[in-house]
Fold this protein.
Amino acid sequence: IHGMYASGDDVYTLGQSRNGEGFSFRKNGEAVIARDNGYIIGTLETSDDSLCFAFYENIKSAEGSIGRYYSVRGGKVSQIGLRDDIKKVWDIMHCDDFEIYVASLTGIIAPVLFTKKGMMTIPIPTKAILLSVNLFGNEDNPGAEIMYMSGSAIYCSIWQNGATVMTFPKDRTISSLCSPDDGACCTVNPSSSSPGLIYRCGELHEMPSGYSCIGDKSICMVNGILHVGLSSRTMGGPIVWKDGETETLKINGYIASISAH
């Protein structure tokens, strides 16, 4: 499942096939859009009161197969027009009546962000191998979570406002991320030798010992207070971290997501 959205009595889901080829967008379990090949880019999101997502599909012709990128808004599918020198689109974000996307171009190592205002590169080290780019924010303040390999190590960094604002220690990957108006917040789960980290708009905090973040939606800013859902690694109850304070939930389970309503 790449996304789920509830509206009144209706539930919408976006899911990728287990073998990685093909997907379906469903309303109350009934397929609205389905493809036998291709894959989903990003997740299910809302823009201008419409449910949106993007996907890649191989189109077969007499000359062979060619890859195309598509946007879906309110159930309507439209092809995204791209430059000829684009090799791969890493992520697509819907903003009102247009799409922001980040792509790799022929002859350029760093990924390039395309917005309504133009294009800009997102720097990564020379000779690094790009592994993934995930967009966040909005059209006025886009940001990106970047993962790349440099040497034999994997690095994750946060890019926003035209600059890299944080690069985490090697071989530590981001688990959950949110983007309030004043920046970006994310979690980095603990390793066997290092504690987990909570990044809050430029501030770095240690995650409480014995806990980790499950899924990619366990973080949310509520009334200026960062809420992080943390699940026990020792069979204890989950907790909610609130700007340094913790609240224990009396449930036997884990926290899959936190959202503000």
Q: What stands out?
A: The mean pLDDT is 90. The two ends are 22 Å apart (CA to CA). The longest strand covers residues 50-61.
